[in-house]
Design a protein that fits this description.
Order of helices and strands: HEHEHHEHEHEEEHEE
Strand content: 15-25%
Oligomer: single chain
Strand order of the largest sheet: 3-2-4-5-1-8-9
Helix content: 25-40%
Shape: globular
Radius of gyration: 18 Å
Number of helices: 7
Structural class: alpha/beta
Length: about 220
Amino acid sequence: GVKVIDDKITWETGRLAIVTGIPSSGKSEFVDYIVAKLNLIHGWKAAYFTPENYPLKFHYAKLFEKIIGKKFNKDKSKELEFDMAYDYVRENYFYLLNEEDFTIKSILDSAKILVKTRGIKILIIDPYNKLEHKYTDSETQYISRFLDQIITFAKLNDILLFLIAHPVKMQKTNGKFEIPTLYSISGSANFFNKTDYGLTVHRKSGDDGVMVNEIEVHIQ
């Protein structure tokens, strides 16, 4: 429903999308926006592993603004809109968080149940860095197996899987951060090599180096 995106991307289930960007660049907000649009237009329900958005009332507020199109406050929104959005979120968005188990196996096991019981079509893992990783060999080999595992899950369960991953600490040039790519994610070039969709969300900054309220989305 947004021409500048639709001209470049056709979203499909059975695919992996990896999104990166420096902290505070708007990665999660952009993914939430895409997920909300796919849900509203196509009815695709979504499940989130998003420990950084707890307590969930904060994430509810973000979803509310994307669903209703108004600011999440009493001055801008009516109580009926809060109630409508709450019911809509409860029926269309689900959350995965076992406080004692942050492994990918636990997340995918929970997501599989939601595929069968709730018909979810999107899974968001936000961020990769919050997962519990158990290395038995090199980091590169581990990441390759990890990506193969989630790609297979997406295909077998016919879902679109978003993986948000932070890059390594980016350098500044003339006071401005360099724009990361999927190769900038710590650990392996496989983040670039194995994904179907690769995106960088980059918040622009002024001449003083301070970030402004405008982002660029780089499709890699």
